UniProtKB/TrEMBL annotation:
<comment type="similarity">
    <text>Belongs to the NPH3 family.</text>
</comment>
<dbReference type="InterPro" id="IPR027356">
    <property type="entry name" value="NPH3_dom"/>
</dbReference>
<dbReference type="Pfam" id="PF03000">
    <property type="entry name" value="NPH3"/>
</dbReference>
<feature type="domain" description="NPH3">
    <location>
        <begin position="200"/>
        <end position="462"/>
    </location>
</feature>
<keyword id="KW-0833">Ubl conjugation pathway</keyword>
<protein>
    <submittedName>
        <fullName>BTB/POZ domain-containing protein At5g17580 isoform X2</fullName>
    </submittedName>
</protein>
<feature type="coiled-coil region">
    <location>
        <begin position="493"/>
        <end position="520"/>
    </location>
</feature>
<comment type="pathway">
    <text>Protein modification; protein ubiquitination.</text>
</comment>
<keyword id="KW-0175">Coiled coil</keyword>
<dbReference type="GO" id="GO:0016567">
    <property type="term" value="P:protein ubiquitination"/>
</dbReference>
<dbReference type="InterPro" id="IPR011333">
    <property type="entry name" value="SKP1/BTB/POZ_sf"/>
</dbReference>
<dbReference type="InterPro" id="IPR043454">
    <property type="entry name" value="NPH3/RPT2-like"/>
</dbReference>
Amino acid sequence: MVDKSDKDASYWLPKPKSRTDIQFHVSGVPFNLDRDIIVQKSGKISQLLNEKSEDNIQEFLRNIPAHPNTFELVARFCHGFRLTMSCENVLPLACLAFYLGMTESHSPNNLLSKALTFFEQKILPSWNETIKAFLTTEDIMQQAVDTGLVDECIESLVGKAVNNPYLLGEPIVNFISDELSEDDVIHHNPSARRKLFVSEWQSEDLTILPLSLYELTIHSMNQHAVPPRFVAASLLKYAKKWVFCSAKGDEKMSVCKTNRQREVIEVLERLMPHQKGLFPCTILSEMLRFAIRLEANAGCRNGLELRIGKQLDQATATDLLIPSRGYAKEMHYDIECVKRIIKHFYRDYGSNMEGLIAAAKLIEEFLFEVASDRDLEINAFVSLVEMSSAASMGTDRSSDGIYRAIDTYLDKHSFLTESEREEVCRGLDYHRMSAEACEHAAKNQRLPLRIVVQVLFLVQLQLRDAIAKDMHRTDNKLTQDEVGNDGELNLSEGIVKNEMEKMSNKVIELEKECHVMRKEIEEGCVHMVKKEKTSMWREMKRKFGCINKMNNCNCQVKKKRVHPKLWT
């Protein structure tokens, strides 16, 4: 091309139109170019002028799909000015050259071939340059798709990611949701061999791409052999940049920003690889909270719930604290959401006992956490208690965790009636409670009286069984011992017989008392007992060392203190 001075570059800018000029309108900016010069380079304009269709020409000239800066570069090229191409302008130039028909068949050394050659030789070999060039197609998306430039960029990026997946970022190891900073994600440390060859060059991040381009790129990577754990790392970085960090501390976001973040969270959920364990539950829970807050579609929320459910045994109780209405100060936990997550786990989980035990423990911990919510309704809490009890049934876990949660709920909801308290305790299996928990329950004033009586009855039965086992062990020991002296044997037999008669009498007495207690429970007498009368219930409390007030089970005798940390 022939060099010309910059002062001549104003030739095509708006000025009085001559007879040989053609006026273009590019995004509202008028450009006047000499007819002969533009016809020499543009096959499309040459064709329209030859057809002599004034309407078609005017329509074409009024709607040039390009940025004014790009059209100015084309005008410079047509007038013989030197053109400097870069990753920022080569694709817009190629698209406009294609639209104007600036091909080799119309004129040698035309703009389209020059732009494509520069793109292939200087842009596509480089990861960073390809991303920067790809970014410029956002405003000319349809043209870039029609010319195949979008596919070329994506193919180049996918091929490079297959060869070196670390271009997408280090795989995820852990995530701390409370601190949304660069240290949130703990990555695999590169090996010493890789560190040896690391240069100062830094790869460009895919997160700079707009959502439409990013979605196309990641979708293509999922279709090819890019390792899913590296795709997951890129998805997390994109979520942090465009959802987590951009929403941090922003209580009142604009409608436009909210809609944009909602679209991002929905697209990211669709792009997530389906392999289990690629995203820690903490990340998935954080995304679910944002999906609820941003009112994402049901498919997005259900997908995140399913992913959490598949690896519930790896979650923590905090991960399940999903607010139903944003991040209000008084959180209302989405219990139905958690129940769906739990159902997903047991529907798809195998027979690994370790995972089942971990899930049962998790549900108990979650039950204890939500028990402090004063707005949690009885029906919702009872359903969680029953679900927790069912989860523990297939394991050797006791009901202590469930009892602890019930005790907390009754403490935070002291306004409940007696019948409502009984409803709360409906799912408690006190037969699986430890001795320490039973001792605490027998003195717990928050529990309904009927439950306390049942616990005491259970303690009596356990005591009877213990005595019976002692008798059986003593009897077996005597039959196995060989005594050389007949006199000593007769004396020992007499002592043992006397002790066994005493123990037998105790067992009979306990059985009578248990029978009377059962009868009182069935007849509902426990609610009508007066303080002045001495009943069997009162006698049983006396035997357990409790004072003689019906509603107070503080013991008179010194008993082993329950460890306070278990119940507080």
